[in-house]
């Protein structure tokens, strides 16, 4: 997985730092990068989420960087038992999910208003 080294370096991470994010040792990261070992499925999933690429891309089964497809319904996505964000795994409580949804609603509203201003429209209340 020589591609792993490229992705890691693009993020400015050492093997040790990436290992901590993925829950594996730096030497394991090195072996993956050298092609001496192949990651198992759970590690591939973590890598895929962390680097925002498909597992096929990580395994070099495709020629281009195709981001993983997010579910269309964010609420359904948040109902999963585990959520990986920026390489870290979270187990959200119902209160956590509500907070995330409320925060996103505010962010989407702000983005919508900003887009209207760019088009020359005046935002409405």
From TrEMBL:
It comes from the Bacteria. Residues 4-58 form the HTH cro/C1-type domain. Keywords: DNA-binding. Pfam families: HTH_3. Transmembrane segments: none annotated. The keyword Lyase does not apply. The keyword Transmembrane helix does not apply. PANTHER family: HTH-TYPE TRANSCRIPTIONAL REGULATOR XRE (PTHR46558:SF11), TRACRIPTIONAL REGULATORY PROTEIN-RELATED-RELATED (PTHR46558). This is Helix-turn-helix transcriptional regulator. It comes from Megasphaera intestinihominis. The lineage of its organism: Bacteria, Bacillati, Bacillota, Negativicutes, Veillonellales.
């Amino acid at each position: 997985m020589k591609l792993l080294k490229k992705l890691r370096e693009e993020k400015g991470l050492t093997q040790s730092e990436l290992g901590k994010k993925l829950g594996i040792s730096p030497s394991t990261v090195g072996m993956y990068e050298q092609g001496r070992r192949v990651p198992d499925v759970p590690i591939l999933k973590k890598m895929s989420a962390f680097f925002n690429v498909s597992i096929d891309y990580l395994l070099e089964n495709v020629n281009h960087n195709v981001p993983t497809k997010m579910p269309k319904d964010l609420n359904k996505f948040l109902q999963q038992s585990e959520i990986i964000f920026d390489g870290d795994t979270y187990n959200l409580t119902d209160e956590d999910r509500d907070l995330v949804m409320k925060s996103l609603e505010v962010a989407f509203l702000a983005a919508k208003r900003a887009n209207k201003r760019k088009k020359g429209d005046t935002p409405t209340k």
